[in-house]
Amino acid sequence: MASSNPPLSRLAEEIARNSKILLDHLDRSGLPQPSFERDGPLRTPFENDDTASAARTALIEATKELHVLALGPEETTRFFCFNEIYLLGAMQVLCHFKVPQNVPDTAEISFSELASRTGLSEALLPRFLRMAAANYYFSEPRPEFVCHTPWSRTLAHDEGMQACVWFRYAEMLPAVAKFVDMVEEFPNSPEPQDTAFRLAFGDSFFGYKEKHPLHMLKFGQFVSAFASGETADSAESIAQAYPWDCLPEGSLIVDVGGGTGHISAAISRAHPHLRFQVQDFADLREESISLAKHRGVSERVSFTAHNFFDPQPPAAQGAAVFFLRNILHDWSDVYCRRILKPIAEAMGPSSRIIVSDIIQPQAGTMLKTRDARIRALDLTMLSMFNAKERSYEDWERLLTSVNSRLRITDVLGRPLMRRDTLIEVQLRQLEDGT
Ligand SMILES: C[S@@+](CC[C@H](N)C(=O)[O-])C[C@H]1O[C@@H](n2cnc3c(N)ncnc32)[C@H](O)[C@@H]1O
């Protein structure tokens, strides 16, 4: 039986309603509307207003759904990724030849002048440029002249945005092209070297970067651009998202694989009654110590060189918290067990593990646009590290396979953290109280 409010009508209403909420918010806040005009805003901040932010999310979801419905099944498949693959290629060429930087911010420029400034062939430049312009990057206000849109302007001035294009083209695309080979060759392998990335590049993800400093640099820029904006989970949000204040004076937090300790430093500033031991490879020691000094927390944040597959050092035994942020999603279950086992062995009766990672939603419980992003992250972990993002049940299974007494006791983080969650894990007490 046909629904009383079929999808096209429902979506059209939703789009009208949510657009109005956004317009009212912009009006009230004196903010400009998003536009493709050269001087349009680079950012339209909706995040600080819950109603506007929810309306924006609903608008993104509804417009995507309407778009797909309007295309229909066959046309969706016929043109599947056709645009995106060549857009990525075109953008990489344009960025490589510094086209965004050579288009003036406030004026148009002819194709021939732009070709001579950038060294990109006069015959090829229009082909790549028009592909980008068909996707809102740049516009052609009159034949053979180009000017910026806000979308292309972000690429002119922000190396993080350039790195988003670069990394997808130079690393993700070749790795994804090896997915079938990976699945054929290593269907059930837990090994971190059995990846699509290695099939494409002949080396591990970080091994390759060590030999190719440009890739290391671009990866760093990509990670910080990707982690900023809407998907950001800042160190400060983690410092607020857990009741760190409930831990007794002088409690020790062990930041396992803590890098240079930026999260420990942020929590320590907000909660000065805690002590931190950052554990990571020895070559991060100097940077970690200098960061702690710079942030005025060196009294409370120390660094210990430690391989997380080894038994925990004596000073960490019985720590109040073993904190693992963005560690376990880098590894298969077999390796996660090897990381978690020494931690479980070092836990005292009141110790807890706090894992800061994604909890994958159950299928069908999330907006499709958000769900798709999380699924893409999962497949990124697969292609790069043979690792994965985990659902609540996956986390439970993993933890009890390390030690049957490990229990998830809380899941925190919302709404302060946008992407990751804090999974609190404790040892279930035995009858004798141990
Ligand atoms: C994705 S980063 C996460 C860093 C930090 N926890 C954060 O959230 O920013 C992974 C960290 O694990 C460290 N790591 C990788 N293998 C390790 C090992 N076997 N022992 C200790 N640390 C390791 C890396 O050096 C890196 O700092």
Automatic annotation (TrEMBL):
Residues 194-401 form the O-methyltransferase C-terminal domain. Pfam families: Methyltransf_2. The keyword Methyltransferase applies. GO terms for biological process: methylation. GO terms for molecular function: O-methyltransferase activity. Keywords: Methyltransferase, S-adenosyl-L-methionine, Transferase. InterPro entries: COMT-like, COMT_C, SAM-dependent_MTases_sf, WH-like_DNA-bd_sf, WH_DNA-bd_sf. The keyword Methyltransferase applies. PANTHER family: O-METHYLTRANSFERASE ASQN-RELATED, PUTATIVE (AFU_ORTHOLOGUE AFUA_4G14580)-RELATED. This is O-methyltransferase-domain-containing protein. It comes from Cercophora newfieldiana. The lineage of its organism: Eukaryota, Fungi, Dikarya, Ascomycota, Pezizomycotina.
